[in-house]
Amino acid sequence: MPNHDQDQLDPIPQAPEPKARPVGATEYSWCRSVPLGTGITVLALLLSKQPNIHLLQTTLDTLQNSRPLLRTKLRFNSATNTFSFITPPAPHVRIQPLDLSSTADIISNGDQNMDPYHVILEHELNKNSWSTYLDQSSDAETNVFFVTLYTLSENRWAVVLRLHTSTCDRAAAVGLLRELLVLMGGENQGGIAEEYENEAEVSLGIEDYIPRGKGNKPFWARGIDMLGYSLNSFRLSNLDFVDADSPRGSRVARLQLDSDDTQKLLDVSGHSVFALLHSSAHYCFFVMPFT
Questions:
Q1: What residues contact residue 67 under an 8 Å CB cut-off, 6+ apart?
Q2: Which residues of the chain are in CATH 3.30.559.10 domains?
Q3: Poorest-pLDDT segment among 50-59, 166-175, 188-197, 243-252
Q4: Tens of pLDDT along 169-226?
Q5: At residue 14, does pLDDT exceed 70?
Q6: Dist CA 61 CA 277 (whole Å)
Q7: How far apart are the first and last CA of the chain?
Q8: Is 256 helix (H, G, I), strand (E, B) or coil?
Q9: Closest CA to 284 of 250, 261, 259, 241
Q10: What is the 3-state secondary structure (H, E, C) of 51-105?
Q11: How far, in Å, CA of 13 to CA of 15, rounded?
Q12: What is the pLDDT of residues 152-173, one digit of tens each?
């Protein structure tokens, strides 16, 4: 007898749809600024041992699962002139490994008096994957997170994470770097491991996390801000740029303190200090030796 149950095939399961949300007001300001070169966050790790790419990729997948914004794509709709975050259901950002020859080609285009590691850092700062958004006549969709492994020499490697600041600003980058190092080391600190047990949902816009009424400014405070903006615009309009036409680029400023100066700083602060300050135009990198 024919088995009618077998004739009724189970429907093919549908793949999960990507989640989407419009960018918030603060995120929108970064979306407008980054194509011009302002607002690219770069994290760089200098390694003396060749990293395990499989372990590193697994760690990045874990971060993308716990922090969905890392796996989002930034989409621009030219018809509505709006930006939105499109979050695929699974991690998709992959490491781009560059061998010694490819890395040497990049380093040769930089300042030969600089450490190759710093040349790579400046190269990443000036590598704008979102410049296509300057053309507002066409749609665009790009990742907000890129990872590259550079081979500096036979015993030096650099892992560089480059992010759109609308998804990871300077403050968040410190936490992201800490989580990456903890996961790579297989450690369980501060409850980080527990966060990864459950997949996180797509986050809200920055403004949605501010309690109702906390973001409101008094009338006079807004008036003072507007007056300050006006005065600053008059002051900046008188700046005389010697060269306003040549291409602009981000550079790294490095300041190294000796043991005596470091101790003086510790005496003032009262605790260990490692300062890494950066802006959209340049980095200030303080190297402080400890004894």
A1: 176, 200
A2: 16-204
A3: 188-197
A4: 888 888 898 899 888 887 554 444 444 444 445 567 777 767 777 767 777 777 888 8
A5: no
A6: 28
A7: 86
A8: strand
A9: 250
A10: CCHHHHHHHHHHHHHHCHHHHCEEEEECCCCEEEEEECCCCCCCEEEECHHHHHH
A11: 7
A12: 999 999 999 999 999 888 888 8
Minimum mean pLDDT range among 64-68, 139-143, 165-169, 183-187: 183-187
Q: Compute, in degrees rounded to 10, the torsion defined by CA atoms 174, 179, 181, 186.
A: 170
Distances in whole angstroms, Cα of residue 22 to Cα of each of 2, 66, 75, 210: 53, 20, 9, 17
Q: What is the mean pLDDT of residues 249-256?
A: 76
Place of tokens 């309690």: 211
Residue 179, amino acid: E
Tokens of 105: 């080609």
Residue 197, pLDDT score? 46
Residue with the two structure tokens 């874990």: 62
**CA separation for the pair 252, 284 (Å, rounded):** 6
140: left (phi over 0), alpha (psi -120 to 50) or beta: beta
What is the architecture of the domain spanning 16-204?
A: 2-Layer Sandwich (3.30)
> CB-based contacts of 199: which residues, under 8 Å, 6+ apart?
65, 66
